[in-house]
Design goal:
heterodimer, A: 294 residues, alpha/beta, Rossmann fold, 6-stranded mixed beta sheet, 11 helices, 12 strands, B: 449 residues, mainly alpha, two-stranded antiparallel ribbon, 2 strands, globular
């Protein structure tokens, strides 16, 4: 249904490359992208990915700045998880460039991404129920003394991380993850991600399947990550969450980045419009908001 | 649409959150029931209280197997002719018989921990025994340690082959090892001939050693000294670790519990050594702990250290608990699974050597099918989950003793083979039922995989 035409692209680029409404539109359109303000931690330019005949991503641009929460929105099949997996190194893009702190990089495997400091928190897939919190947080990166595990050291480090994130509701960090509530599990998964000196945390639907109180706890945690100076990307369907924690919003529609700007430039309806149709008739409000901010 | 929620509702919710935050730990009563008590109990009394709560919630830990052992012992003590079952002579025989089941159950434990199964372990064990026996035959006459090593190597090779087929070709372990069950039975017949027997007929030095695994006993005095040394070392290690963790403010069981555990191990050791040191000979004095007992304990110690104290062991638990999480954590899942199958077959080889020592060789009459069912039953009775992610080497020891006691009891009663087959089937069924029930009881049970 969605036909590609150059005009679309120009429109997309305009919005995409206009951080905070500060940079002039003409500069944003230039092929050599000149960022306004500080360089984002991770910058994607023209990322495309197809699987057979299916074009999952088409020339996607994305900025993930430090100390800010970027919400990645989109309907099912918009390409959110493919984009996330490209950043996490699970998929390699067919085309496009990635810049880390301004340096061009290639992420070819999850190891590459981890060594840059990118951590992904997958919904409900990150933890082994039969292991306790400490064991889960160090899974795959256990600390050793000699040939044996250094449990004391790991337990201390895990406890320090959890308390720095104010995760205090767990009864004992030696309790198996199976005994935790959904929110606690998510908190452990996030804490696991930030343990590793990570600089960018990708959260895949962090509040799906959580109750109200637990959602609040997880969103507080996301805010704390931001306060620690990390770049955070939250993939979410849930507009409540987006308006609670996001500083910036990026919206994918059928594999294209149809909008990317500060949260203030959007309202609920315009985000829904972008997610469902790839455009919004509420341009007046959007630019108005942008101008107010600028 | 799910995200559209009215402001009033959200206000309400946030005040609820505030209320909940004050009453804090968002733990329900159900959580308390399934958290292992040793990680939060501050005293032995508190521990026992929490433990009884946990048992009532269906997660009974070591209790079912202890109960099963007691029940089996009492029943056979009562019905065995002349109450033979609990005589020192029969108990030592029981330890020896059980050793094969114990080691096989530890072998099977590796693959059960991964959520897999290995149906070929019985015949793989037989092949281990056969290879070891072949290499000490007069024409070869290799020294026995080398012969045993070659037997174990053959088993490890079989495990590697099956493991690679399962992980690389992504075939179900059930089918691949069922094929192995048939194929290795066939290979065994090819090696030693139809109705064949390979006896441990070897030079005196080799024969002494190989028969001696189950046939020779440790001098009673040395047995006591060894017991004191082992319990002392183990107790000291446990105490120092737990006391150190308590001092540094880490999660540790209360001092009373540590002492109780050490006391229990010491008591069990004293009972075993005392039973074995009774003269059980009819004409000549026969006394002392059979060598197979420290051998089994050595295997137990080695595999316990591997599973619970090393990175590889941790990865095995992770793969068994949630293979996807393990993969995302950067663990090479196919490698861990392949090594699991190798360790299973290797350990089965140890059981095969013990079995060959018991039988004085190996014959094609060995019932590999029954052995593997006993092994799975023993592991599951001991507390290992069929569903992966939960299991310890010590479960093989406990379950193997139960199976050994049943086997020994039926032997004493002179039950015919058909009764033994029915009993084996029922025992396996009962074990799996217990596993499945304990998995279902308490949604947060550890076995939920």
């Amino acid at each position: 249904m969605h036909l590609h035409n150059p005009k679309d692209d120009a429109m997309n680029m305009t919005r995409t490359d206009e951080p905070a409404g500060k940079s002039p539109a003409s500069e944003g359109r230039a092929p050599a992208h000149q960022p306004a303000g500080p360089e984002p931690l991770l910058k994607l330019r023209g990322i495309s990915k197809h699987f057979g005949a299916v074009q999952a991503l088409y020339r996607v641009d994305l900025d993930l700045p430090k100390g800010e929460v970027t919400a990645l929105c989109g309907d099912n099949g918009a390409g959110k998880s493919v984009l996330t997996k490209c950043i996490a190194g699970i998929h390699q893009p067919d085309q496009g460039e990635m810049f880390w702190d301004g340096r061009p990089i290639h992420i070819r495997s999850p190891k590459d991404s981890a060594s840059l400091g990118i951590e992904t928190v997958y919904q409900d897939l990150a933890l082994a129920d039969n292991l306790d919190i400490v064991q889960n947080m160090f899974l795959g990166r256990e600390r050793l003394s000699g040939i044996f595990l250094d449990e004391d050291d790991m337990e201390r480090a895990a406890a320090a991380t959890l308390s720095s994130l104010h995760v205090t509701t767990v009864r004992s960090i030696r309790q198996p993850v199976a005994t935790l509530s959904g929110g606690q599990r998510q908190a452990v998964a996030v804490a696991k991600a930030v343990m590793w000196n990570s600089k960018l945390v990708l959260l895949d639907e962090p509040t799906a399947a959580l109750g109200v109180a637990q959602t609040k706890m997880v969103l507080d945690l996301v805010r704390r990550l931001k306060d620690h100076g990390l770049a955070v990307m939250v993939i979410s369907h849930n507009l409540n969450d987006v308006f609670e924690v996001a500083d910036r919003v990026a919206i994918l529609h059928l594999g294209r980045m149809v909008a990317q700007d500060r949260l203030a430039s959007f309202d609920r309806q315009s985000i829904v419009d972008f997610m469902t149709t790839g455009g919004s008739s509420r341009e007046v409000l959007e630019t108005g908001a942008g101008q107010r901010k600028g | 649409m799910a995200w559209i929620e009215d402001e009033a509702g959200r206000k309400n919710a946030s005040s609820e959150i505030a209320a909940e935050a004050e009453t804090a730990p968002d733990l329900t009563a159900a959580d308390v029931e399934v958290i292992p008590p040793e990680i939060f109990a501050q005293s032995l009394g508190e521990y026992l209280k929490a433990w009884s709560v946990r048992i009532r919630s269906g997660d009974a830990g070591v209790l079912p197997v202890a109960g099963a052992l007691l029940a089996v012992s009492v029943v056979f003590f009562i019905i065995s002719p002349g109450h033979l079952f609990l005589t020192p002579r029969n108990l030592v025989f029981l330890f020896i018989q059980s050793s094969v089941f114990i080691v096989l159950a530890m072998a099977e434990g590796f693959v059960l921990l991964l959520g897999e199964i290995d149906l070929s372990t019985g015949y793989v064990a037989a092949i281990g025994g056969i290879v070891a026996a072949l290499f000490v035959q007069p024409k070869m006459d290799l020294p026995w340690p080398l012969a045993i090593a070659l037997g174990l190597l053959a088993c490890a090779g079989i495990g590697a082959l099956q493991g690679v087929i399962i992980t690389r070709l992504r075939l179900p372990a059930f089918i691949v090892t069922l094929a192995g069950y048939l194929a290795w039975f066939g290979v065994m017949i090819i090696i030693i001939g139809k109705d064949g027997v390979v006896g441990i007929t070897a030079s005196r030095y080799n024969q002494e050693a190989l028969f001696g695994i189950v046939g020779n006993n440790i001098d009673p005095l040395i047995g006591w000294i060894g017991l004191v040394a082992i319990v002392g070392l183990l107790g000291l290690t446990m105490w120092r670790r737990d006391a150190g963790r308590r001092r540094r403010g880490l999660v540790a069981p209360p001092a009373g519990l540590t002492l109780a555990k050490i006391g229990f191990v010491a008591a069990a050791g004293v009972v075993v050594v005392a039973i074995c040191n009774v003269n059980r000979g009819k004409f000549l004095p026969v006394e002392g702990v059979p060598w197979v007992v420290p051998l089994v304990l050595g295997v137990l110690a080695l595999w316990t250290l591997l599973l619970e104290r090393t990175q590889f062991g941790r990865h095995m638990y992770a793969v068994g608990g949630n293979a996807e999480a393990a993969r995302r954590a950067g663990i090479n899942v196919p490698r861990v699974r392949t090594i699991g199958f190798i360790l299973c077959s290797l350990t089965a080889g140890v059981a095969g050597v013990i079995y060959a020592s018991q039988l004085g060789g190996m014959t094609t009459n060995v019932n590999g099918g029954q052995l593997v069912l006993y092994a799975v039953a023993a592991a599951v009775i001991g507390g290992t989950s069929l569903f992966g992610g939960r299991g310890r080497a010590v479960h093989g020891l406990l379950g193997g003793l139960v199976i050994g006691a049943i086997y020994n009891g039926m032997y004493l009663m002179g039950y015919p083979i058909e009764v033994q087959l029915v009993a084996t089937g029922l025992v396996l069924l009962a074990a799996v039922t217990v596993d499945s029930l304990s998995r279902g009881a308490g949604s947060g049970s550890l076995a939920r995989a």
